[in-house]
Amino acid sequence: MTTVAQLIDQCSGMLHSYTGTVEQATYLTQSIDADDTTLTVAHPTRILQGIIEIDNELMQVSDQGTTDVTLFPFGRGVNGTTAAAHTLGAKVTTDPLVPRQRIFEELVSTIRQCSDLYQVKTAPLTSDAVVNTYGLPADCRRVLKIQYATIGPSQEWPANRTWTFDPNADTSTFPTGKSITIDGYTGVPGQSVQVTYVADLGVPASTSDSLEALGIPAEMHDVLRFGACWRTVQMMAPGKLNARAVEDPSTNGVSPSTIKDVAQQFFSVFILRRQEEKKRLDLQYPPRPHRVR
Fold first, then answer.
1. Buried b vs exposed e over 168-185: b needs ≥16 C-beta within 10 Å?
2. Counting CB atoms within 10 angstroms of each CB, which of 1, 5, 183, 268 has the fewest?
3. Residue whose C-alpha is closest to residue 100's, from 86, 114, 80
4. In CATH, what number does 22-96 get?
5. What are the sequence ranges of the domains in the chain?
6. Residues pairing with 92 in the sheet
7. Is residue 61 within 8 Å of 6, Cβ to Cβ?
């Protein structure tokens, strides 16, 4: 399982490859709580007054000692990050090229932007003799197919091709606001019915979330990487983006020299991979004709 944190690491590596930047870094020799303003680190001389990063939190350094680093009283969770506890051995980075929290935010924005990509899920129902309209999960965006279990040893799941999906169902009857009316045969009462449907990609709440659990398969990971890098690089300070010494093989030996050049490269690959993924999904889950009321 790939976590969001691992994807952030990959994005950070891609962005660093364009700059040749190697930030000063050390590590905590004692764990800290969310309200501590004194850090004990292995190499205090590598910490300068200014901004440091530990995990996804940015902090503002006031003073540097022989073994400790002191933060300003307001120095925890700066620049929109959240103060948190950090464990022994956590990496401490001085003046990060691209804060991890920024990459996380751009990953979330990229996922939301990719509304043409989706995950496929199933909703189990039970056939009812007197009811033909059933509630569906709130994340149902489009129904792909309906199947029902047969009686006997064949273990077949024939498809039902007469149904109507209502994405704006009466919430007093169907709390999720999604329902499906099945007019065709679904087996005898009590038999299992399975609705296969399309849902939006999951949006991570933290960096520990699994991409696969969010409905984002490995095939889509590079789409998100290129999209997040494209969005992130546009916000980087020009002074931090020095691509003079690095060539990207995908550009046929042309080394980008400006933020615009780098952003355009990421954007072009992002759009290409996004289109390829959309085509893969549509081939794997083609629309099935069905009758409606």
1. ebeeeebeebbbbbbeee
2. 1
3. 80
4. 2.40.30
5. 22-96, 105-116+202-283, 119-199
6. 26, 54
7. no
CA distances (Å), origin 35, targets 67, 74, 75, 85, 105? 19, 10, 10, 8, 24
Q: Which residues of 212-221 are buried (b: 16+ CB within 10 A; e: fewer)?
A: eebbbeeebb
Distance CA 24, CA 203 (A): 32
The one-letter code for the residue type at 238 is: P
Q: Residue 70, Cβ neighbours under 10 Å: how many?
A: 15
Judge whether 216 and 148 are in contact, CB under 8 Å.
no
DSSP annotation string for 94-140 = ES-SS-HHHHHHHHHHHHHH-TT--EEEEEEEE--SS--EEE--TT-
Q: Give how far Cα 277 sits from Cα of 5, 48, 216, 220, 247, Å.
A: 22, 44, 11, 7, 27
Q: Give, for all 293 residues of the chain, the pLDDT tens digit.
A: 899 999 999 999 998 887 777 889 999 999 999 999 999 999 999 998 899 999 999 999 999 888 899 999 999 999 999 999 999 999 999 999 899 999 999 999 999 999 999 999 999 999 998 899 999 999 999 999 999 998 878 888 999 999 999 999 999 999 999 999 998 888 889 999 999 999 999 999 999 999 999 999 999 999 999 999 999 988 765 555 544 334 444 444 434 456 778 889 999 999 999 999 999 999 999 877 778 76
H helices present in the chain, as ranges: 4-17, 100-113, 221-233, 259-284
Q: How far apart are CA 71 and CA 61, in angstroms?
A: 4
What SS3 state is found at 180? strand
Q: How far apart are CA 246 and CA 197, in angstroms?
A: 45
pTM of the model as a whole: 0.85
